[in-house]
Amino acid sequence: MSLRESARLLLGGEVRKPAPEDYTPGARQVHELKRMDVEHQRQLKEHAKLGHPHRNRWRNRRWAVLIAVNLLFVFSFWLDIQILEGALTASRFLGFHLIDLNSALQVMLAHKHILVNLVIGTATVFVLWVLLGGRAFCSWVCPYHLLAEWAESLHLYLVKKKKVSDHAFHRGLRTVLWLLFAALAFATGYTVFETLSLTGILSRALIYGPGLGLLWVLFWLLLEVVYSRRAWCRYFCPIGLTYGAVGLATPLQVGYRLGNCFHEGDCRKVCLVPHVLECVIKGRATDEKMDIGADCTRCGLCVDVCPSGALNFEVKGLSKWL
Amino acid sequence: MAAKLPHKAEQARRRFLRALIGGGALLAAGGAGWLPLAYGGEVRLRPPGALEEDDYLASCIKCGQCVQVCPVNALILADLGDGHGIGAPYIDARAQACDFSCDAVQCILACPTGALTYTKPEHLDTRGAMLMAAAPILLAKEKDPEPTLNLKERIGVARLARPELCLARQGKGWKGAARAAEYEGMLRFMEVDRWQPIPLNDHPFDVAVCDLCVRTCPIKGAITLEALAPDRAPSLMELPANRLGRQKTSAKSLAAPAPLPPAGEGSNRMTPVVHEPCVGCGVCEMACPTEPAAIVIDPRRGWEG
Lengths: 322, 305
Known about the structure:
The complex is a heterodimer.
Chain A: H1 3-10, H2 25-36, H3 38-51, H4 57-78, E1 84-87, E2 90-93, E3 96-99, H5 101-111, H6 116-132, H7 136-140, H8 143-160, H9 173-188, H10 192-196, H11 198-208, H12 213-226, H13 231-236, H14 238-247, E4 252-257, H15 266-270, E5 289-291, H16 301-305, E6 311-315
Antiparallel strand pairs in A: 1-2, 2-3, 4-5, 4-6
Helix pairs in contact in A: 4-11, 5-9, 8-12, 9-14, 11-12
Chain B: H1 7-38, H2 53-59, H3 65-69, E1 75-77, E2 89-91, H4 106-110, E3 156-160, E4 174-176, E5 186-187, E6 198-199, E7 205-207, H5 212-216, E8 223-227, H6 251-254, E9 270-274, H7 283-287, E10 295-299
Antiparallel strand pairs in B: 1-2, 3-10, 4-7, 5-6, 8-9
């Protein structure tokens, strides 16, 4: 996916079907082969499935990391081990400043004065998430993501039982909210979004003890169970957009190999941001090897679920050597 | 039959409408968080080195690193029910004052954004009355080569808000723990442990004339106990809040206080007097044994005496 297309999807643009001239000769050949030799494809698929049983390998690793990071915050204070002090909005790791990019942005716009520590912490976190894959922050660190995943399984169960249905929002909403909250911080001189940030509220509640703010978290979880699947992370949270923008420059991506794909679509069913996976639909991939876009949270659910190994974590420029 | 919209277009229309309503609702929620502030909510005591309230709320990133370094847990992060500044730290002096047990102002050092700062940047607002005439001397460090706190501005100032309750003014002493049995606040007593604060109630007092506010004050020269002069008009520092126009005068507050023995020659009636070095830490309010406290901190008020 081109950088421009990746950014367009991130900002909420609709997925476009590629034009005939967008396809590389190689991709065109693969699509052609798949159309011609259906029986052979079916055999290949059965063979591939034997080698790729569904395991929750990446999900388990990710949950372990997410829980470990948040516990490190908690224990640094509770047990006074002082490794990761502060909360997700701003902290010190062994004394080094780390500052959440979205919180830093809110503070800079509200305060209109930038301190050296703030710049150092923000730059460190920026570099960190360029290396670790932008929105990987969402799925590998944000505590709300984990709660939302559990709420999501409940939602999907209720959908299956036909008790509730999913209501989608326009994906451009997040971009509009990002701009409005930035403008609000600047105009009011108050970090308005921090009052609403589920990440901040939950992180502080874990570290400093629960408060009424958890009611706001509970409200969103309920909304996601009964009304709209993963609504906060998909359509609302401006933090996701901030880290998504960082993800435009990251070498750590999920990569797609057209030759290994049998277009069953399991990946799109588990994905938080299925618009980045439209290239897996039959006939859509314009190259034999595609990068999944910046909005991808690198959660690895698609890698786990893919029955034929077509989706994998990759480090651009390094994968050849690994 | 009316023409039905194509399925896809109808879905898109609904997605857009939901986004409009959902986005509007979230903005309204954000506005609801900001309004109590815009309309000037409750005045809270902020940690040492805090910028003026507007700048403070703008620059605080709500990470709680100041909370983590405070040895007496004096800093509380505001909750949803506290109205404004959710996640921004404040001090409830009566519950737990800042007693400078850390020997410095560690919370300032911990702050990553400069919401708490040793030296205010020049372009930010400063009120003259907040500036300390000299760096405050911490009694605990008085004999150290560097006895002062790195604090240029006060965070408030103590005031004898309820002189009618003050035990010293009635010539009464105090025996026992300063506060009610369930009270958990911590305070450092040099004579007990130079480095560790202990529960205030673990340190009972026995004084002929109550001077708890004076003997617990961590700052040199901030408060003294003086003989109550006969027929002296109450000073500004002693006036009840209602006479300073901060509260409505209620019938109750106008009721005549109980008759007291006359002050003057031979009387043991005393009064606490607050002086300019007061930084507004709130230890006097915390230690005051009357209920409610006779002496309180006026948060973010400067020295006017």
